[in-house]
Amino acid sequence: MWKKLIFCCCVGFLTVRHAKVLKCIHVKSRVLFDFQCVAHLTYTNLKCNSSNRNIGEFDYCYIKAVNRTYKYISLYYKLYKRPLSNITLNIQMLRKSNGYKPFTPNLEVDICKFLQNQRNPIMAIFYKSLKQFSNLNHTCPYITDVYVDKMHPANFESDFGRYIPIPEGDYALCFHFLAKKVEICNVCIFCTIFN
């Protein structure tokens, strides 16, 4: 059964990287834990928008290129209305193909509930990549400003891109934050996935 599961995963990836996937199917499909789909990710753009300036706004939001291959994201969201609770996150993954079009179904997560029990596997991958660079490491309510400091894509590569086959191309990851069903801000990370 595991061989069939891995083979199906590789075949779904076959259209993008023919030679490497055939090698993956032929050599590594015998042992489950040796199978890896490794892709590299680089940030290309970052857009932050405060939808409701009464609740808070971005102090800064930028990508810093240290060299050609190492870029990181930093942002700081200043809260005016405190405490902030009942927070929902809507995640969209868009792929560029004559404009940005939905690539995966939207993921909607109640942040307060997730931080209490962390049982959503996809959100757990995002959170694991984010928590060491941010102060989003406690449950609701939020009474301090929120920041992400020098988040580089290596964690996404090792956690997310290792097990989920994603074709090469340009993508946008959009995070829409809602408080009591009203959008307060959104962050769109534009990136390129390549071999």
TrEMBL record:
Asked if Transmembrane is a keyword of the record, the answer is no
Q: Respond yes or no to whether keyword Signal is given for this record.
A: yes
Residues of the signal peptide: 1-19
Q: Which controlled-vocabulary keywords does the entry list?
A: Signal
Q: Which domain of life is it from?
A: Eukaryota
Entry-linked InterPro entries: DUF1091
Name used for this protein in its record: GH15855
Q: Which organism is it from?
A: Drosophila grimshawi (Hawaiian fruit fly)
